[in-house]
Every structure is written in structure tokens, then in C-alpha cells.
Design a protein that fits this description.
Helices cover 38% and strands 18% of the residues. It is built from 17 helices and 21 strands. Helix 7 (169-194) packs parallel to helix 9. The longest helix is centred in the middle third of the chain and has 26 residues, at 169-194. It is globular and about 65 Å long.
Length: 514
């Protein structure tokens, strides 16, 4: 175990590693470039398929989705065909800062996505002040009166829900301005909190690269291809540069003996997926007549995001959250009636992969597929058929791989996860697909997001006795929590992740040259 130290950790939610390294090399992210020069640094990766919804719970618990039980914000309710919202308190494993706090360390935890409020913490916690897609409609804190103090001093999130369809150029400019304002407000909040105590662990996350990746990816791609004459500029780069300055301001407050970790959760790329056609594909493979239930949730959200001004949406956020949850439950009742009659069905999921659940005898109330040989045969058949499907616009396969979840995950909550994970070929849009078994299927993504997630990330760690350099091996996202705990002299019990050895070995760190 390493000697105890203090740790300042800064997370950049869904910041794309290839862009970071490019702009670090070009001098446009100077703080991160200087940090890399004196850090042990390397690549991170997330577990296959389910990383988008599970990434933050996996990072802050140090266990896989099969043990903490979360892969998406809405999941199947075991013993039924209905889905329900998965809340942070539904997680089956505690966050690592609970153990660190119980060991007597003073902790400050600020805006870690998808995290539960940890009452009785030896320190403070801020949940959902300013993140992409917050779980709760307003900030929650430990101790509770901290929420009023933060709101009085720093206001509320100036961005709110960032999704909106058919933005005008002026509306993109407005979103950019609000994201940059949120970064500045967050820095002021963190500077204030950092000065309130001598923290052993100060962990804070910026969600702005996540919002920007979803909304500005097409502007970034167009700028890169055609230059500044193509439009208003690379708003994505603007956000990354602002985050670079923010990281610098926060690091400047750390003393020379404090270890610093900066990390990203996962990355970004173009939003290309087959979510819109997957369920119809499964129907045709099974020979089940198509039942196209109207998606009331999508219609309500589209109207809300497209026609209500930002300020009004911000004021209505608590009411809107309750309305959306009620509408989703109504939509899901229709879906549940459909699922019970099928051999397999698509589960709600993020768009990076498709998720399939088998209607299994003994697990589902009206199971239609027996365990053992029948289940195996169906999974093999589905994989074979899905791999045959071609994108008619490119001639390339639509699916690159079909994974058995049980081959990659384990734990007491494996049944909370999908049975199959469908990895899409995401190099081009997927709108019209074909195979001999299904014929032609056409569908258009309902999402207004032009960027979507990729599993890779980056991390940088500095410490006075740490020899800088790049790691040759990729680190798992679940290794970040035990590494942070180990830097504080705390060992996490019963986890899947392992501390990053090179970060703990001081001057004997086994790393390559930077």
C-alpha cells in the first residue's frame, strides 16, 4: 500500500481522447499538455457494450455492471415485462468515497454523474448541480443546508437539458454561451469549496464535454473538413479549451504535496446506430407481426425541448421530470404487452449498442424459450442472422459483433442486464438495411444528437515522487476508484478493479517514455 497523500481528482465527462491529444499537441490545450509532461498517463477503456449507462457507476464503485446492476437509466424490472427508471440509490454497491470517508479521510465529492447522495459523509457532497442529463431536477447536498448556500452563491445550472431538435445558428450560439458560462460558474463553485477545508480527497466532475459532444459534433466535423468559412466555428473545441483553463485554475489551488488526477470517463464520435431498426429486425427474424406503438414520450419531449424557451424549461424542470416519468410509464405498458408474446425483444438502451433480452422460461413470467440448449440455439441463430445484415447505403455489415453478456460480465445482478449486446458498425449512418432473412428495413433515428459515445478515455496522475511517462497497457475504468483510494492509503474491499501499479510505485514506476 502506498503512503497516504492528499488527492485532487478532476473528471471530464465524455471528453474524446483523440481530440484532447490533438489539441494538446497543437498548443490549444496547454494546461493538459503541461500536465502530461509531468504525469503518469495512459488510456482507459470501459466494459463492452454497456459502458454508456454503466460507466460512472463502474468508475465510482470499482465493480462491473453485473455487480452494481446498472446499465441504463431505464431497465427491465425482473419478474415482469415492464421497465422502470434506475436511480442511483438502486445501485447494489457503495461508492468508493464511502469507504474513504469511513476510514477517517475528509472528502468533498462534487457532481459525479449518476451518484447517490451519501448521507453521513465525513465531508461534503454535491449531486446534480450542473451535469449532462442529471438524475434529479435540482441540486442535492450533504449536509442538506449546503444546497441552499450553493444556489444562493452560484445560482442554478444555466444549461439544463441540452437536447433540442432543429436548432438555428443563433440557438447553437446560445447553447455554446450557456455551456461556457456553466464551466465558469463550476470553477467558481469548486474554488469556493476547495478553500472551505483541508480535504484529503477532492473529486469533481465537469459535464460540459458530454453536452458539447452530443450537440456540437457535426459543427466540429464540418469545421475540420471545410475550415472556418463553413459555419460559426468549432464550438466543441471552444468547450474543450474552456475546460482546459478550468482544470488549470483548480490545479493552481493544490499545494505541491497533493497528488492530482485528471481523467475522462469515455469518448465521442459520430452518432451512427441501428436503434431505429433493431426491433423490427427482431420481429422479422421471429416472424412476429409488427406492432408500432406510438411513442408518446418522444413526442412530448420533442415539443418541450423545441418550443419552450430555455429559461422556462429551467423553471419547469422539477415538474417536467415528473411528467416525463409518468408518460414513460404509460408508453411502457404498451411495450410490456408486446414483450410477453415474443421470444426476444429489444431493451431500452443507449445508442452505442443494441440490447436484446430473451423471454426465458423461469425468469420471465410468460417465458417462451427454455434454458440450456434452446436458449443457446436462439442466441447463436440471432448472432448469425444479425451479422448477415447489410447497410444498403454503404454495402457494409450493419453489425460487427454480437456478444453474450454472460461471457463478459458476472455477479449477482447479471439478470438485470441484457442477454445479448449488438455492436453496430458506426462508420456511416444506418437508415436502410437488408438481408435475405429480413428483406429491407428502413428507419430513422429519433435522436437530435449528432455525436455519441465511444468506450475509450484518458487519465493523468502527478505526484512529487512519481516518474512521468506513458503506460503501455490500457487501464480499465473500474481501476480508477481503487487507485484513488490507494493514493489515500485506503484499500477498497470486495471490488473488481485494481489500483494502477505505476501510479503507486513512485520513482520505480514501470512506464515507457512520454
Amino acid at each position: 500500500m502506498t503512503r497516504k497523500t492528499r488527492l485532487l481528482a478532476i473528471g471530464l465527462d465524455a471528453a474524446e481522447p483523440s481530440l484532447m491529444r490533438r489539441w494538446m499537441a497543437s498548443g490549444e490545450l496547454p494546461v493538459l499538455a503541461r500536465l502530461q509532461e509531468r504525469a503518469v498517463w495512459g488510456r482507459t477503456t470501459n466494459e463492452p457494450g454497456l459502458y454508456t449507462g454503466a460507466v460512472w457507476p463502474t468508475i465510482f464503485t470499482g465493480v462491473s455492471a453485473g455487480r452494481h446492476g446498472c446499465y441504463y437509466y431505464r431497465q427491465i424490472v425482473n419478474g415482469s415485462y415492464q421497465t422502470a427508471q434506475f436511480l442511483p440509490n438502486d445501485l447494489k454497491h457503495p461508492p468508493f468515497w464511502r469507504t474513504v470517508s469511513d476510514a477517517g479521510r475528509r472528502v468533498a465529492i462534487v457532481d459525479v454523474p449518476k451518484s447517490m447522495l451519501t448521507e453521513g459523509l465525513n465531508g461534503i457532497q454535491v449531486v446534480d448541480w450542473g451535469l449532462h442529463d442529471p438524475t434529479f431536477p435540482s441540486v442535492r447536498c450533504w449536509p442538506p443546508d449546503l444546497a441552499d448556500d450553493i444556489t444562493r452563491r452560484f445560482g442554478i445550472d444555466p444549461v439544463g437539458q441540452c437536447d433540442a431538435a432543429d436548432r438555428t445558428p443563433a440557438q447553437y450560439q446560445d447553447l455554446r454561451a450557456r455551456i461556457l458560462a456553466r464551466i465558469d460558474h463550476k470553477v467558481s463553485l469548486l474554488e469556493h469549496l476547495l478553500q472551505q477545508d483541508r480535504w484529503d480527497l477532492f473529486l469533481a466532475v465537469f459535464g460540459d464535454s458530454h453536452c458539447a459532444g452530443h450537440q456540437f459534433w457535426h459543427l466540429h466535423a464540418r469545421e475540420g473538413l471545410q475550415g472556418s468559412a463553413s459555419g460559426p466555428g468549432d464550438f466543441l473545441k471552444d468547450v474543450y479549451m474552456a475546460l482546459d483553463r478550468a482544470v488549470g485554475r483548480i490545479i493552481d489551488l493544490a499545494d505541491a504535496d497533493t497528488a492530482v488526477m485528471v481523467f475522462t470517463s469515455h469518448g465521442f464520435g459520430p452518432h451512427n446506430d441501428a436503434t431505429a431498426v433493431l426491433d423490427e429486425i427482431l420481429r422479422r427474424l421471429e416472424g412476429t407481426p409488427g406492432i408500432h406503438w406510438p411513442n408518446v414520450t418522444h413526442a412530448v419531449r420533442s415539443v418541450y425541448r423545441s418550443f419552450l424557451p430555455v429559461d422556462l424549461r429551467t423553471r419547469l424542470r422539477p415538474l417536467a421530470a415528473r411528467v416525463f416519468d409518468s408518460v414513460e410509464r404509460i408508453d411502457d405498458l404498451s411495450g410490456a404487452r408486446d414483450r410477453r408474446s415474443r421470444k426476444c425483444f429489444m431493451l431500452p438502451s443507449n445508442d452505442n449498442c443494441g440490447n436484446i433480452r430473451v423471454n426465458l422460461v423461469g425468469r420471465e413470467p410468460h417465458g417462451r424459450v427454455g434454458r440450456g440448449a434452446e436458449f443457446e440455439a436462439l442466441c447463436d441463430s440471432l448472432a448469425e442472422s444479425l451479422l448477415e445484415i447489410v447497410n444498403l447505403e454503404t454495402g457494409e455489415p450493419v453489425v460487427t459483433e454480437v456478444l453474450r453478456t454472460a461471457d463478459h460480465y458476472n455477479g449477482d445482478h447479471l439478470d438485470d442486464l441484457p442477454d445479448l449486446i449488438v455492436r453496430y458498425n458506426r462508420e456511416a449512418p444506418i437508415r436502410r438495411v437488408h438481408s435475405a432473412k429480413i428483406g429491407e428495413v428502413e428507419g430513422q433515428s429519433a435522436s437530435c444528437r449528432t455525436g455519441d459515445h465511444r468506450p475509450e478515455g484518458l487519465f493523468f496522475v502527478t505526484r512529487p515522487d512519481l516518474r512521468p511517462g506513458a503506460l503501455n497497457d490500457t487501464v480499465r475504468a473500474m481501476d480508477l476508484a481503487p487507485t484513488m483510494a490507494a493514493l489515500l492509503g485506503v484499500e477498497l474491499p470486495n471490488i473488481d478493479g485494481r489500483p494502477i501499479a505505476a501510479v503507486l510505485h513512485g520513482n520505480e514506476s514501470p512506464v515507457a517514455g512520454p
